[in-house]
């Protein structure tokens, strides 16, 4: 649930700011449909600083500097350092291909505390095709090495599709080898360029099986494994915990179209609900600020809550009717509305919108049948 106090109401835990839509890659799934040159009208330096001031005026969230490629914004290190000085935890989501020794040192000096770097395959054949750029895999691995040598913490993000679902165990091995602090597998949401590869979404059964596999391997490694755009994972963690309490290790029956990836060996390090407390956080702990100041529940959910050029960020976050609706789980429809995990999972509101045109409809990729009566 969103953090709340009686003076300001709900407060965000994470804010993603799309600092620019400029990018040097052409990823097949890009939400922003980014191009090399900056899009017209992106927030100015002064507007970006005011945004950070307004965020810090009522909350202390993690601020994710994203894009496009945030490193293509000329003032990005000045912006990051300003946010750190305001007491915000500043993190960045750069394209791994842009990381050089010099850039990594600037990142470290600015006070950015973590990077998230995308890796969508364990080999160039998979990753480079996904990223639309030959040589992207080797450049990204090299960039991670620069981070490791400089002591800059980084996590690896992986967008899961049919083209790499069988590669997930090998991707995990790569993530462990490069020294990442965390692995965040993202379940594809078909927005932006992602609409063109909608047929590459894994099936609902595969989705469930991948999450169950991730829960199992998370127990075998010290690295934090945190699926994203996968709210069902909270339910799967709760089910696994309940089975442990009952001493019952039997898996629930899986759909026929859902082969599990092969398990990899390793040592046990259980991770549970303490590290992943809520499923869909759109408008309820998380929000996204676009390159032109639009505020959305998340970058995949194009339902406008307001614009910081017209209203203050605290006013939008606390009072937007869109966000108020997203925080009210009684408004969820279909089986999400009667599910006993509704307040913890919530279903992916962006996927519901993409599939049905209604962001309150039931999560279309969830195979779970609620126990709660209609």
List keywords for this structure.
single chain, 374 residues, two-stranded antiparallel ribbon, 32% helix, alpha/beta, 12 helices, ten-stranded mixed sheet
What features would you describe in this structure?
The chain has 374 residues and is of the alpha/beta class. Helices cover 32% and strands 13% of the residues. It is built from twelve helices and twelve strands. The strands form two sheets. A ten-stranded mixed β-sheet has the order 9-8-7-6-5-4-3-10-11-12. The protein has a two-stranded antiparallel sheet with strand order 1-2. Strand 10 (286-289) and strand 11 (294-296) form a beta hairpin. Helix 3 crosses helix 5. It is globular. Residues 1-6 and 251-274 have low confidence and may be disordered.
Summarize it.
Helix content is 32%, strand content 13%. It has 374 residues and is an alpha/beta fold.
Largest sheet: 10 strands, mixed
Distance between the termini: 24 Å
Portion in beta strands: 5-15%
Query: What sort of overall outline do the alpha carbons produce when their principal axes are compared?
Result: globular
| Element order: H for helix, E for strand | EEEHEHEHEHHEHEHEHEEEHHHH
- Structural class from helices and strands? alpha/beta
Mean pLDDT: 86
The strand count comes to 12
Rounded Rg:
20 Å
Helix content: 25-40%
How many helical elements?
A: 12
Sheet with the most strands: spatial strand order: 9-8-7-6-5-4-3-10-11-12
Low-pLDDT parts are 1-6, 251-274
């Amino acid at each position: 649930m969103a953090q709340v106090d009686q003076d300001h109401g709900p407060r965000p835990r994470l804010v993603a700011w799309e600092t620019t839509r400029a990018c040097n890659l052409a990823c097949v799934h890009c939400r922003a449909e980014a191009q090399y040159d900056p899009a017209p009208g992106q927030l100015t330096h002064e507007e970006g600083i005011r945004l950070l001031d307004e965020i810090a005026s009522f909350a202390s969230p993690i601020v994710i500097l994203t894009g496009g490629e945030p490193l293509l914004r000329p003032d990005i290190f000045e912006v990051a350092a300003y946010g750190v000085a305001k007491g915000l935890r500043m993190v960045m989501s750069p394209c791994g291909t842009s990381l050089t020794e010099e850039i990594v040192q600037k990142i470290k000096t600015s006070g950015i505390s973590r990077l998230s770097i995308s890796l969508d395959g364990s080999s160039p054949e998979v990753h480079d095709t996904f990223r639309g750029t030959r040589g992207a895999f080797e450049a990204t691995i090299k960039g991670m090495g620069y981070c490791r040598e400089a002591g800059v913490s980084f996590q690896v993000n992986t967008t899961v599709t049919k083209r790499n679902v069988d590669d997930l165990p090998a991707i995990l091995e790569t993530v462990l080898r490069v020294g990442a602090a965390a692995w965040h597998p993202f379940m594809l949401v078909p927005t932006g360029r992602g609409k063109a590869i909608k047929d590459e979404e894994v099936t609902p059964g595969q989705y469930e099986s991948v999450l169950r596999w991730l829960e199992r391997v998370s127990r075998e490694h010290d690295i934090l494994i945190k699926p994203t755009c996968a709210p069902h994972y909270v339910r799967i963690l709760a089910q696994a915990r309940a089975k442990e309490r009952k001493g019952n290790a039997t898996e629930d029956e899986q759909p026929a179209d859902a082969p599990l990836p092969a398990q990899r060996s390793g040592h046990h390090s259980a991770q549970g609900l303490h590290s992943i407390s809520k499923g869909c956080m759109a408008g309820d702990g998380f929000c996204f600020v676009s390159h032109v100041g639009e505020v959305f529940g998340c970058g995949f959910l194009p339902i406008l809550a307001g614009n910081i050029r017209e209203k203050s960020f605290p006013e939008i976050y606390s009072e937007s009717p869109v966000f108020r609706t997203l925080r009210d789980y009684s408004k969820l429809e279909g089986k999400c509305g009667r599910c006993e995990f509704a307040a913890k999972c919530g279903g992916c509101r962006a996927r519901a919108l993409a599939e049905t045109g209604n962001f309150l409809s039931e999560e279309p990729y969830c195979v779970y049948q609620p126990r709660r009566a209609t």
